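Why do we care about 3D structure at all? Because function follows from shape, and shape follows, mostly, from sequence. That is the central idea of this module. The next example makes it concrete: a single protein chain, its amino acid sequence, and then its structure expressed as tokens.
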Amino acid sequence: MKIYNLGLEIESGKYKYKCENFDKLVMKFSPQKVTPYTVEFMETDLEKADAVVFDIEKKIDLIVIDLDKIEKRILKTEDE
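And the structure:
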């Protein structure tokens, strides 16, 4: 999962999600291969993100980004 980060003190990169239930299932079933869930925090490419996390003080910045994209789409249209 790719998560867009706006204003939080989280370094960009991939992080393994640690879950106690996942560990219990691995111990119980002893699979040959174990693939933990990972998330990727990024500060660029908002359009490729699956989710967004942001500092509440940066909410207006997120709105401005959306308005800019809407304005560009409106300018590209031929019909009013």
